[in-house]
């Protein structure tokens, strides 16, 4: 049985072996997570080159050599050469390094789920490596269901939570306010661009819960 685990990759050294489109997606995900990303590959895509030029990604323009994985927290093997991916996998397993081998679940000790990000909201979809294509299709469906308004909604809720925790000492009243805000259809008002009604509804929730 697989259990979802969230790794904090901020400032962690991570390596992507490969420079094609698949590697590009992995690099992009790691950069978004705040990791310190390095790429080893004889060739790289234009986007990876752009990140290298910006100083976001370190790059070694050569093939992978035994021992290159040493010192990294996490490694992704994303080449189209099975023998190279196998070498990277063996290297990581010998050093107890987290390794994800693209299109080879048996060669991986962790999986990278398809992810939707809407501000602080993250939804991860994983098929346990059985079918990344299916995971992508589910992600595309959920992207329609969970629009950009969710990011704005959670930003608002986080701000209100800080305000309530700061100004309301009573735990019972705090809970009443949080429940009222959660049930107030604020998300729909944000989606419809009803800023005035949104402010009124928030003020109503805060005042009625404090009565």
TrEMBL record:
Pathway: Porphyrin-containing compound metabolism; siroheme biosynthesis; sirohydrochlorin from precorrin-2: step 1/1. InterPro entries: Met8-like (IPR028161), NAD(P)-bd_dom_sf (IPR036291), SirC_C (IPR042518), Sirohaem_synthase_central (IPR028281), Sirohaem_synthase_dimer_dom (IPR019478), Sirohaem_synthase_N (IPR006367). It catalyses: precorrin-2 + NAD(+) = sirohydrochlorin + NADH + 2 H(+). Residues 150-204 form the Sirohaem synthase dimerisation domain. GO terms for biological process: siroheme biosynthetic process. The keyword NAD applies. This is precorrin-2 dehydrogenase.
């Amino acid at each position: 049985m697989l259990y979802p685990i969230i790794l904090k990759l901020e400032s962690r050294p991570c390596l992507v072996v490969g420079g094609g489109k698949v590697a590009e997606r992995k690099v992009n995900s790691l950069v978004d997570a705040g990791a310190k990303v390095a790429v080893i590959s004889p060739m790289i895509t234009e986007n990876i080159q752009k990140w290298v030029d910006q100083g976001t990604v370190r790059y070694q323009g050569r093939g992978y050599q035994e021992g290159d994985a040493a010192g990294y927290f996490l490694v992704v093997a994303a080449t189209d050469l099975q023998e190279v991916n196998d070498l990277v996998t063996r290297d990581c397993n010998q050093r107890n390094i987290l390794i994800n081998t693209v299109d080879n679940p048996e060669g991986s000790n962790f999986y990278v789920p398809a992810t939707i990000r809407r501000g602080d909201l993250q939804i991860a979809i994983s098929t346990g490596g059985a079918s990344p294509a299916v995971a992508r299709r589910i992600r595309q469906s959920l992207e329609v269901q969970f629009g950009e308004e969710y990011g704005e909604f959670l930003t608002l809720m986080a701000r209100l939570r800080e305000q309530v925790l700061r100004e309301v000492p009573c735990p019972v009243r705090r809970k009443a306010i949080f429940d009222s805000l959660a049930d107030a259809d604020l998300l729909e008002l944000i989606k419809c661009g009803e800023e005035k009604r949104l402010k009124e509804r928030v003020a109503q929730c805060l005042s009625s819960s404090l009565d």
